[in-house]
Amino acid sequence: MKLSDALALGRLDAHDQSALARRGELSATELVEAAILRIEALDTDIAAVSWRAYDLARARAAGPLPDHPLAGAPYLLKDSLDYPGLPSRGGSASRDEQPKAAAFAYAERLDAAGLIPLGKSAMPEFGLLPVTEPKIGPVTRNPWNLARSPGGSSGGAGAAVAAGLVPLAHGSDGAGSIRIPASACGLPGLKPGRGTTVRVRARHVVEDLLVGDALMARSVRDVAAGFALARPDRAPPVTAASPRRLRIAYAARTLAGADPHPSLKGALEQAVALCRGLGHEVVEAWPDIDGPAADRAERVLWSHIGADCVDAVRASGRDPAACLEPWTCALGDIAAGLTGADLEAALGQLAILPRQLAAFYGRFDVLLTPTLSGPPPRIGEMAPNQPADLLMERMFGWCGYTPLQNLSGTPAITLPLAWDADGLPLGVMFAADRGQEDRLLALAFELEAAAPWRDRWPAASVAGGA
What is the chain's Cα-based Rg? Predict the structure, then answer.
C-alpha cells in the first residue's frame, strides 16, 4: 500500500474503515498496514505511541472477525490498560516491560468486537498530570500546534486520533483525562458515569469511584459504539439525535469560582447560541453545591493516589525518588501531611454530590460549561519537574470543571465546537445525571450535524492541515 492511500484511509472514522473490511473491499490486514504506515510517517513529530505491537496486530488481523460495526478497526490501548502480551508501564520508570498475561473484562470486550490493537499510547506517570510529558518519554505534542500539549492523561490517545494515526484509542478519566485531551485535540470525548462499563482494572476504592473509561474517536457514532460495547447491560448504541428539546443550564465559572480565559468564555457563548438556535431552552444556572469543597476533595484524593504509587515502590525495596517523578513523590508528601478529617471531607463530597446533582437534574436535563479554563498549555508548563505548589495550581486551575463528574459519578461529554484565533480547538462540556449517557450522545449527534468538525484537521495529521 502506498503512503498516500494509507493517509486517505486515516481520514475515515472506525465505522467506515470497518465497513471496508466487512464488505471485502479491504482486508483487516490492509487496515492494520495502513495504520502502521501512518504511525511511522507521522508519529516522529507527535510521539503519541509509546509501545508498538505490530506483530500482534498483524496476527489478530489475519484471523476471523466478528460481525460488529467496529470490527477490524485498528486502535491503541492506553499504557495503563492491561492486555495480554503487552506491558503496562503507566508512563513510569518504576514499572518494567514484562508483558501482561491477562486482561480484565473491558479489554476482553474490545477483543470480542474485533478491534485490532496496534500498541500503547503515551501517558504521564500513572495519569497524575493533565499533560503527557513523562520522564521515560515520549513527550507527546499536540497535532494542532507542536509547541502545545495535547493534554492528559490520555494525551497519546487524543493526539493519535486527532492526527488520524488510528480511528480509535482507549482513554481513562479520573479528573478529566479523556475530556481534557479530547478538548485540547479537537475531539468528542465521553466520560461514562460510575458503573456503566464493565471492569477495566483491578479493584481500587478511589479509582473505582472516580474513573470512567471509553474509546476516544473523531466521530460521535464511533464514541457511541465504543461506549455501548462496554456496557454491562449490552444495550445498543445511540445512533441519532433525539427530537426531544432539552432544558439546558450553563455556567462559566470553575468549581473554585474562577473565570475562564476569554477564548473559553467565547466558546461557551457560541455553544449557548447554537443550542438555542436548535430549539433547546438554555438558561444560566449552577447546581446548589460547594464548588471549592469539591475542588479541594479532588486534590485530596489525587494526593492519596500519588501516595499509593509512592508506597508501592517503597514496599518493593526501592527508593521512590530514584524511580518516580518529582510530581508523584510530591503528591506522596502532600498526602502525608493530610489528616483523617481531610480525607473524611473529601469522601463526604463523593457521598453528597450525587444527591445534590440529582436534585439539579430534576430541573435541568443538561449542564453546559467550558471543558477547560484555557487553551492547551505550552510544552513544559506542567512538566512533572515543576515546583509542586505551582504545578498543583496550574493543573487544577486549568482542569477547573472536569472533576465534578468524577466526584459525583455522573457522565459528561466534551465537543469541539470552537477554535481560538491561533487555530487551537476549544471544547465545551455537556454533563447530565447518572444513567444519562444516551441523552448526551443524542445531543452530541445533533450538535455534530449542526456544527460539523469532520473536515477540520490539524497540520500534523493525515490531512496536513486541510
Answer: 20
131-158 per-position pLDDT tens digit: 999 999 989 999 999 999 999 999 999 9
The grid coordinates listed for 37 are: 504506515
The catalytic position among 88, 92, 154, 177 is 177
**Catalytic residue, candidates 80, 121, 149, 153:** 153
Closest by CA position to 182, among listed 195, 192, 191:
191
Beta bridge partners of 412: 191, 431
Tell me, yes or no, if the pTM score tops 0.70. yes
Rounded (5°) CA angle 466-269-443: 70
Q: Which residues pair with 83 in a beta bridge?
A: 86
Q: Which three cell numbers stand for residue 4?
A: 498516500
Phi-psi region of 72 (alpha: psi -120 to 50; beta: other; left: phi over 0): left
Cα separation values, 276 from 50, 151, 165, 339, 393, Å: 43, 30, 35, 47, 35
How would you class 206 by CB atoms within 10 Å of its CB: exposed for 0-12, middle for 13-18, buried for 19 or more? middle
The C-alpha cell at 72 is 477490524
pLDDT at residue 328 in the model = 98
Matching residue, cell 444513567:
435
153 flagged as catalytic: yes
In the chain, % helix, strand, coil (3-state, to 5) comes to 40, 15, 45
Nearest to 87 by CA among 128, 135, 129, 119: 119
Residue 78 annotated in active site: yes
Query: Tens digits of per-residue pLDDT, 332-345?
Result: 999 999 999 999 99
Q: Is 429 helix (H, G, I), strand (E, B) or coil?
A: strand
C-alpha span between 343 and 205 (Å, rounded): 13
* Distance, CA of 456 to CA of 219 (rounded, Å): 12
pLDDT in the model for residue 430:
99
Residue 98 has a CB neighbour count (10 Å cut-off) of 9
Q: Where are the beta strands (DSSP E) in 61-211?
A: 74-78, 116-121, 168-173, 189-191
Q: Which residues of 17-151 form beta strands (DSSP E)?
A: 49-52, 74-78, 116-121
Question: What's the 3-state SS for 359-425?
Answer: HHHCCCCEEEEECCCCCCCECCCCCCCCCHHHHHHHHHHHCCCCHHHHHHCCCEEEEEEEECCCCCE
* Residue among 50, 78, 94, 303 flagged as catalytic: 78
Amino acid, res. 262: P
135 is annotated as an active-site residue: no
Residue 277's closest CA among 239, 248, 317? 248
